[in-house]
Write a structure and sequence with these properties.
It is a single chain. The chain is an alpha/beta fold and 414 residues long. It folds into 2 domains: 206 residues, 3-Layer(aba) Sandwich (Rossmann fold), CATH 3.40.50; 165 residues, Rossmann fold (3-Layer(aba) Sandwich). It is built from 17 helices and 13 strands. Strands 3-4-2-5-6-1-7 form a 7-stranded parallel β-sheet, sandwiched between helices. Strand 10, helix 12 and strand 11 form a beta-alpha-beta unit. The chain starts with 9 loop residues before the first helix and ends in a 7-residue tail after the last helix. The C terminus is likely disordered.
Amino acid sequence: MSFDHLGLLAELVRAVTEQGYNTPTPIQRQAIPAILKGGDIMGGAQTGTGKTAGFTLPLLHLLHKKVCGKGRRPVRALILTPTRELAAQVGESVRLYGKYLPLKSAVIFGGVNIKPQMAKLRQGVDILVATPGRLLDHVNQKTLDLSQVEILVLDEADRMLDMGFIHDVRKIIKLLPKKRQNLLFSATFSHAIKNLADSLLNSPVMIEVARRNTSSEQVEQLIHPVDRDRKSELLSHLITSENWQQVLVFTRTKHGANRLAKKLEKDRISAAAIHGNKSQGARTRALAGFKDGSVRVLVATDIAARGLDIDQLPYVVNFELPNVPEDYVHRIGRTGRAGHEGKAMSLVCVDEQKLLRDIERLIRRDLPRVVIPGYEVNPSIKPEPIQKPRHARVNRKRSSGHAKKRFSKMKPRT
């Protein structure tokens, strides 16, 4: 099957072909016709499956039928994403695929000057890609009207909930017309996601192209047991001895990302850290350097890495295992994308054995252990407790149904 068999406009097929895509992926084959019919969608897909094109292409097709002419135009499609990087990626897809259509789009997120965004919105926008916090900033300043939105997309809804955006998302939904098309996409399905879907979607078509909460079959996964104090040493050894030229490394905390990047630089391995405390300019420069090869290792936290779209990324390393097992699936999904093979290694110390068991229970498989000679684990080292990041502690209390009032006034921004 080719894209022109899915009922898309010739202009869209032309734009997709120019990007080098001729055959739709499984989620695109299912999602595009279903969205074109106008119904609600609940889509489950791992990263790298072509999900973004799966909703942007039919969205562009549907809006093209009702172009409001020149001058100021109302926002008729709203795409919510959890992070700046993902918003930028989705916005770029909208721009590329819609290049032959007379539709206007904009991307708004925090961490940058709000005034240029205001100017863009005043000119009129058909499709708006936004993070929840900055979107509400615009609503509060009365620079944005959502009363004519016809299509709502929640992309990576699971991460939206993990980051504590559920209150902002519900505020935004209340600002939208009740009659609209809703598209929800998530890589994992928790009870919280199901509850959100039940309250948001109307008789949705369920589209799932991978078994729930599974890791990509394209990714070779290994565990390297190592003592906690020798992790950075082992990482440098692997990078240099295996001659890895492009490696995405995950840490649990922002400070840990900074420390590791500095340690790698001391070992003469070019590295940059990317996390929520970095300015948008610094994050953009780090990612650009990683893509062009001037930065060999990108050290990232889970939040910052959402939306990173790197073609044929060969290696992902979990320097520290995530506290939330679903985040492991998201992490290793950065490699093995679009049919390419990838390799994901986790450096696991004695403190992380429970986290590893939780991950293996989630993905329903035992991961092979490979001990690197010279880095054997010292059995006399005792486990130490792992400090959970603030957002994880807050989310756990919310999900348990306790302390609801205590956290009701928190408004995260991305």
